[in-house]
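The instructor's notes for this session suggest beginning with a concrete chain rather than abstract definitions. Hand out the sequence below and ask the class to guess, before any prediction is shown, which regions might be ordered.
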Amino acid sequence: MSNNPSATTQVISFRVTNEMYNTLLRRAKKQELKLSDYVRSKVIWDAKRSHKKKEE
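After discussion, reveal the predicted structure:
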C-alpha cells in the first residue's frame, strides 16, 4: 500500500449491536475473511442489489 493521499479508502461507520457483530464475525470466519473485508463486500453487494431493483 502506498502513502498516496489521493488513493484514500472510504470509511463507513455504523453502529452494530453485540448480537449483529457476533453474527457478522461468525459469517466472516465461515468464508475465511477478515471482518472488515466481509463487511465491505456485503455493503458493496447490497448496494448493487438495491441498484438493480431501482432499475426494474
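Then share the key points. Residues 18-55 form one domain. Helices lie at 18-30, 35-55.
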